Amino acid sequence: MSSVRGTGDQADTLRQMARSAKRPPQGNAASGTTGEGQQGIRVLSVTSGKGGVGKSNVVANLAMALANQGKKVLIVDADLGVGNLDVLLGLSPQYNLNNVLSGECSLPEIIVEVNSHIKLIPAGSGVQEYTSLGQHEKLRLLDELDMLEETFDVMIIDTEAGISDNVTYFTVAAQEIIVVVSPEPTSITDAYALIKLLATRYSEHHFKVLVNMARDSEDALEVFRKLANVAGRFLDISLDYLGCVVRDERLVEAVKKQKAVFELFPESEAATCFTTLAKRIMENSRQTRLKGNIQFFFRRYLDLSDGEQP
Fold this sequence. Notes:
Elements: H1 8-19, E1 42-47, H2 55-68, E2 73-78, H3 85-88, H4 97-101, H5 107-110, E3 112-115, E4 118-121, H6 135-146, E5 154-159, H7 165-173, E6 176-181, H8 185-202, E7 206-214, H9 217-234, E8 238-246, H10 249-256, H11 261-264, H12 269-283, H13 296-305
Parallel strand pairs: 1-5, 1-6, 2-4, 2-5, 6-7, 7-8
Antiparallel strand pairs: 3-4
């Protein structure tokens, strides 16, 4: 993480930017509420220890399920090397986050409308330059997000898989961390490695676990128990079981047609799982201590990156 632990002038600049952040209007950033007692934006990071667990599919369909419940959702494709959410959703954006980072476009110029309730910030693909963001790129994203005028109920960040600098950047900055794991032993092992890194290096202690591609609910619970048992023995963290999405051929068919299964086959077993998942996430809002709002999203991370971790 040396790329974000700057010294001298760079570190001073980061601290100054962080401390001059816009504050929530007369509200409590820790509780995620405004001065009028309304719930602030939910910032969810959806991540995984390895690829191939269906994480991006989870993000696309969770957004659809939340929109179906009347929520306004902003999806951020943060896999800056091989972003594919636009492909999954059958979209062909002209510009993406790479264009923002290079200074060619502003963030509002690249936002794509998925439907009346969902907007997407697409990532680039096949460009190595931004696979590890530097301080300049982080500050550019910070400022661009600050200038977004449209209000959303939920922001969902689809990180790349693994434990790269970009993964920890977007994950630590989010209010809530959802770790997607599949029944494969390697997926469980890699999910534990990711959780361990976030807990020991970045002082993250609360994680939600979603089991994807499970045979059934019992299979999913067994996967969660295995992960929880290992984490409980070696880490001082809280793992909450968020639920599961079962294997469903309808989902595979939807991917081939570049549609979300929730949209193409709303009565399918997988779509039902996403409906349950969306309800559970929104019901848990009162029990979750949020870290901040959209202005606090990146600035909180910059504070931590300056060596101010607890």
